[in-house]
Specification:
Length: about 300
């Protein structure tokens, strides 16, 4: 299969490109700055049609394009997060509309943050999006809306939890805080943390691209065992061999978020999510439990 990946130069995009190439697929990465590498790269500006649009002929599409969410929740940053997702999605949709035949499968990235701060409510594929906050639900809703009605035979919208992988901001920051003695619970510690190991995320995307019974529509992409923040921090301390640590009160997190130029809501909100579709398909996770996932990613360092 020929697969065109938008956002293929990001951390997950690079992982996915290598994974699909190893599986024998032809991978084409759309990027603003093409460089020599193991995959063919085609230049685009992420906004307008151009010669790159011809690459979609007969190809599957994986749209991962978007700026990292780890930034202050200012209006300017919310606008950046939104445009960096919506503009490329609209450009891809416009390119697909010019094709004689629909795209065979369109895998559209999204995020569980579309459900905002869900408290203890269980999130599945049938759960409706939240009204806010704007840097979470607002951005994700606009992202998904931009992909609605694309010229594709089948579309899967991946509402993905936190993907745990080496060298990514989410896991690196958590590990760093734990190593320097700040590995206690954050706030109340009761906020939920839904997650997935990168190896399982890659397997889910491969399943979406082609299988005997491929999924369609919204797919919650998360491991089957979400944990509360307090349990997350205990697991990190255990894997990194750190002693118990004092909690980080919410006001202190707000101060630290300013210094680190991040959004305190990333640590103080959460979602308890499981995938009804993955369970129905009897998807077998390589890393179904957090301790095992963290051991695999961190213990070898």
């Amino acid at each position: 299969m020929k697969i065109v990946i938008a956002g293929g130069s990001g951390a997950l995009g690079r992982r996915l490109s290598a994974h699909l190439t190893d599986a024998g697929h032809e991978v084409v990465v759309l990027t603003r700055r093409p460089v020599d590498g193991p995959h063919r790269q085609v230049g685009w500006d992420g906004r307008t049609l151009g010669p790159w649009a011809r690459e979609l002929e007969g190809a599957a599409v994986v749209n991962l394009a978007g700026e990292l969410v780890d930034r202050r929740p200012t209006q300017a940053n919310v606008d950046l997060l939104t445009s960096s997702r919506v503009d490329p999605t609209r450009a891809l949709a416009a390119a697909a509309a010019t094709l004689d035949e629909p795209v065979p499968v369109w895998v559209q990235a999204s995020t569980l943050a579309i459900h905002g701060d869900a408290g203890d409510r269980l999130i599945t594929e049938s759960s409706p999006p939240a009204d806010g906050p704007p840097q979470m639900a607002g951005v994700a809703t606009a992202w998904e809306s931009a992909a609605a009605g694309v010229n594709a035979r089948r579309q899967v919208v991946l509402r993905t939890s936190i993907v745990l992988d080496r060298g990514t901001p989410a896991l690196d920051r958590l590990a760093w805080l734990t190593r320097i003695g700040l590995g206690g619970r954050v706030g109340s510690g009761r906020q939920w943390f839904s997650w997935i190991h990168v190896d399982d995320w890659l397997r889910v995307v491969s399943w979406c691209l082609g299988s005997e019974e491929p999924p369609e529509g919204v797919l919650v992409v998360t491991a089957p065992s979400p944990v509360r923040n307090a349990e997350l921090m205990r697991s990190l301390r255990r894997v990194l061999h750190r002693p118990p640590a004092p909690p980080t009160p919410a006001p202190l997190l707000h101060v630290g978020a300013v210094l680190l130029r991040t959004d305190p809501a990333l640590g103080l909100t959460g979602r308890r999510a499981v995938s009804a579709k993955l369970a129905a398909a009897e998807f077998r996770f390589t890393h179904p439990h957090l301790d095992g996932a963290l051991e695999d990613l961190l213990a070898r360092r």
